Every structure is written in structure tokens, then in C-alpha cells.
Amino acid sequence: MLLGFKEEVLAKEFRKYLNLIMEFGEYNNFFKKYYKISYDKYLKILED
């Protein structure tokens, strides 16, 4: 199946974001393991 150029670019972008989300998930798990809180909670603490 051939995608149009636009769709191909979108697919690449989407994959890039998916990888970022996956990496963030991994990072979050790492963070939870060592700091017993999730990274988003940590960011909220920093904001306060």
C-alpha cells in the first residue's frame, strides 16, 4: 500500500511521538522505582 507524501510524513511524526511517550513511560517507571513517586508527581512538587 502506497501512502501519499503527506500521510507518510504524518506517520513518521506519529512514530516519533510514540517513541517519546514510550521513553517517558520508561523514565516514569525508573523514577517510581528509585524515588517511590511518579515523575509527574515530582514535577507537581517542584511547581508548588
Annotate the secondary structure layout.
Layout: H1 5-35, H2 39-47
Describe this structure in words.
With 48 residues, this protein is mostly helical. The protein has one domain (5-47). The protein is 83% helix and 0% strand. It has helices spanning 5-35, 39-47.
What is the alpha-carbon Rg in Å? 16 Å
Taking all residues together, what is the mean pLDDT?
Answer: 78
Helical residue percent? over 70%
Number of strands: 0
Quick rundown:
This protein is an all-alpha fold. The protein is 83% helix and 0% strand.
Give a quick set of tags describing it.
2 helices; elongated; mainly alpha; 83% helix; 48 residues
